[in-house]
Design a protein that fits this description.
Helix content: 10-25%
Number of helices: 4
Number of domains: 2
Order of helices and strands: HHEHEEEEHEE
Shape: globular
Distance between the termini: 24 Å
Radius of gyration: 20 Å
CATH topology of the largest domain: Mannose-Binding Protein A, Chain A
Length: about 220
């Protein structure tokens, strides 16, 4: 079925170019609009979950997974805000099952462990149009991003990240197993363009409910 659909799209594009003498690079033509739509769909997107969770990230609620990272990924791929059929991972670290950097603002991708961002790659808001940022060689961002993750007011999501992309010491709800006031977890800020978008100075207690930031793969 997918092969037939691709064939029909190619046939339509070819016919449109010859019939209307279109330039496929012109986004105002039917051919250009279709190509732009296909391009937007292929772009890697980031979204914030509709649901919020306490610090054990779905533990004890029937969410599949043997650790917080696996549960968070499952949540991302089944959330109402998921924009397409792509696979998503949660931008959340525990230092063991998922890690961005073991050294400050790393440039070596070998420091990654099951990391969510690809090296030297562009990322967009869920509509696939609004550009957010481009990662470096290790799949992190060390400059301000072009747009905030969400428009509007502050909306926090769990990350566990320090501002230099290492794990935030003692701010990850005991590796995302705790849902009490005994521990804290670092969050990101949805309306920030500086490092607070992934590592806000706020570290709420683990009994608070926060969203997840999900990244297309």
């Amino acid at each position: 079925m997918r092969k037939k659909l691709i064939f029909l799209i190619i046939l339509l594009l070819t016919w449109s170019c010859f019939e209307f003498k279109e330039s496929p690079l012109d986004p105002t033509t039917p051919t250009g609009m279709i190509l732009k739509l296909l391009k937007d769909q292929r772009r890697l997107k980031i979204f914030v979950t509709a649901e919020k969770f306490v610090g054990d990230i779905g533990g004890g609620t029937g969410v599949p997974g043997t650790n917080g990272i696996q549960r968070a990924d499952f949540i991302c791929n089944n959330d109402a805000n998921k924009p397409d059929n792509n696979t998503y991972k949660a931008m959340i670290v525990d230092g063991t099952n998922r890690r961005a950097c073991s050294t400050s603002n790393c440039i070596d991708p070998n420091e990654n462990v099951d990391w969510v961002f690809k090296p030297n790659t562009d990322y967009y808001r869920p509509n696939g149009i609004l550009y957010l940022f481009t990662t470096n060689s290790a799949g992190i961002v060390t400059t301000n991003i072009a747009e905030s993750i969400l428009a509007g007011s502050y909306y926090p999501y769990w990350t566990g990240l320090a501002s230099d992309w290492t794990i935030s010491p003692s701010a990850h709800c005991n590796n995302w197993t705790d849902y009490t006031t005994s521990n804290i977890g670092r969050v990101g800020s949805s309306n920030s363009k500086d490092s607070k978008w992934y590592s806000d100075i706020s570290s709420p207690s683990c009994d608070s409910s926060n969203a997840l930031l999900c990244v297309g793969q």
